[in-house]
Amino acid sequence: MNVKKVKDKVSIPEGHEKHPTTNILSDFILGSQDGLVNVLGIILGISAATSDIRLIFVAGLAALGAESISMGAVAYTSTLARRKYYLKERERELTEMREVPKTEKAEIRDILKEWGYSGKDLESMTNKIASNPKAMLEFMMSFELKLSPVSKHQPLRSFGIVFAATILGSIIPLIPFFFISSIHTGAIASLIFSGIVLFGIGYYEAKKTIGSLWRNGMQMLIIGLLAGIAGYLIGYFVGAVPI
């Protein structure tokens, strides 16, 4: 069997090139960004309202626990809902293929027309797809309904990735406080460190997808700064109001 060499010295059979899974990337970015931005906002809010550094760890770790479980659960239920919807539409499409095959064949023809096929090529392609139930089903799911399959393992996988990424993101704003005893100095260090990491997440996203590396990095950085400013202002005004 012929193989081709890739840069990392791994041999992959021709015709079986591996591609990155977009779900893993989106789940990682979702969890890490949410955890980081959430805890950063809390830290800056507390730093504006009090000088007790213990509150930073209490609030930050509490947010880490609650947010990681919450985000993981949301990822699980939303992915499971997508799987159920896909399976429901798949059953409906199978029913239509059995009961109204001519209508389904006409829909295949219409899609191929939009792709630029005509005449004999159009009829040949239509007949070939319609004669193969598996090909016809996948064709209709992908190009008529615009749906992608969701495996039975994907909801649990999404939970695990988002859960772990949220924990990782939530820890990042807390790291400076392990080395800095001043709450205000630590808050500034946390903001800078978190901003660098957010920029890196946006940069990495653009590198794995499309878009400007620097623009994506700056967008992610701005999101974090806005959340931090909001947290700081809330903490400042709440701390300034006597209770």
Descriptive tags:
76% helix, 243 residues, mainly alpha, two-stranded antiparallel ribbon, disordered N terminus, 8 helices
Please explain how this structure is put together.
The protein has 243 residues and is mainly alpha-helical. Helices cover 76% and strands 2% of the residues. The chain contains 8 helices and 2 strands. The protein has a two-stranded antiparallel sheet with strand order 1-2. The longest helix has 47 residues, at 53-99.
Can you summarize this structure?
The chain is mostly helical and 243 residues long. It is elongated.
**Mind telling me the C-alpha Rg?**
25 Å
SSE arrangement, N to C: EEHHHHHHHH
Q: Provide the number of structural domains.
A: 1
Shape: elongated
Mean pLDDT: 84
Task: Break the fold down into its secondary structure elements and pairings.
Blueprint: E1 3-5, E2 11-13, H1 22-49, H2 53-99, H3 101-114, H4 119-130, H5 133-144, H6 154-171, H7 183-208, H8 213-240
Antiparallel strand pairs: 1-2
